[in-house]
Design a protein that fits this description.
This protein has 227 residues and is an alpha+beta fold. It is built from ten helices and four strands, in the order E-H-E-H-E-E-H-H-H-H-H-H-H-H. Helix 1 links the parallel strand 1 and strand 2. The longest helix has 20 residues. The protein is globular, with a radius of gyration of 17 Å. The structure holds glutathione.
Length: 227
């Protein structure tokens, strides 16, 4: 049995990646939410997370005695566990490219990640417009995203970045949520891709659950004081 430990669905962008991957690929798992009550050492979240992995973060995938942490490591483990699900693209060159994209997402895009934290229930287009005007690094991140996505979308044999749904789309799903929440300017192709990701059944399920949470966490809210 696989158990995925996640954070609040409204806020936890890292948790969203493996959850969407598993759900969309039809992998059975149990989910346990560690509610965000703070990230300091005394918080219940941190204590429960540290009992699962030395990183003290979510997501964590528990598989029998094994605990796998970090969204990319979890996705790689799942790809090995379920080769028949083709979680990475079939061709070696596409696989390498998909891994490059995921790694870049995993370790980069810091302006987008820090300035526009995931907040699915919020509508913040005015904040997004201000951030866009004030932060060259954010505009640069969007330009990088366009350089990654555009060539793939132009040649994809299907609706997703590598044709069929793969780990790459799961990795960019939280980015799509941020782009929608903050109304950041996109090319027509990028906008259409964001909406196709938003329409994936697993993403819809995650979003519905995020909207149902109604669990305003002030420490995750740089731009709102009330829901
Ligand atoms: N690189 C990690 C990042 C995980 C991460 O930062 N998760 C956040 C929640 S979305 C967390 O647990 N934060 C707790 C903290 O910062 O102490 C991954 O890919 O899983």
């Amino acid at each position: 049995m696989l158990t995925l430990y996640i954070g609040n669905k409204n806020y936890s962008s890292w948790s969203m990646r493996p959850w969407v991957l598993m759900r969309q690929a039809g992998i059975t798992f149990e989910e346990v939410m560690l509610r965000f009550d703070g990230f300091d050492a005394q918080s219940a979240f941190k204590q429960r997370a540290l009992a699962l992995s030395p990183a003290g973060n979510v997501p964590v995938l528990v598989s029998g005695e094994l605990s796998v942490w970090d969204s990319l490591a979890i996705c790689e483990y799942l790809a090995e566990l379920f080769p028949e699900k083709h979680l990475w693209p079939a061709k070696a060159a596409s696989r390498a490219r998909a891994r490059s994209l995921c790694s870049q997402m995993h370790s980069g895009f810091s302006a987008l990640r820090s300035l526009c934290p995931m907040n699915i229930e919020a509508q913040l287009p005015e904040v997004g417009a201000r951030l866009w005007n004030e932060h060259a690094a954010l505009r640069e991140n969007l330009s990088q995203l366009s350089q990654l996505w555009q060539p793939l979308l132009a040649q994809a044999e299907g609706p997703m970045l590598f044709g069929q749904f793969s780990i790459a789309d799961a990795f960019f799903a939280p980015v799509c949520m941020r782009l929608l929440t903050y109304g950041l300017p996109l090319t027509a192709d990028m906008d259409a891709y964001v909406r196709r990701v938003r329409a994936l059944p697993a993403v819809q399920e995650w979003v519905q659950a995020a909207l149902a949470e109604k669990d305003f966490r002030a420490f995750e809210e740089p731009y709102r004081t009330t829901p």
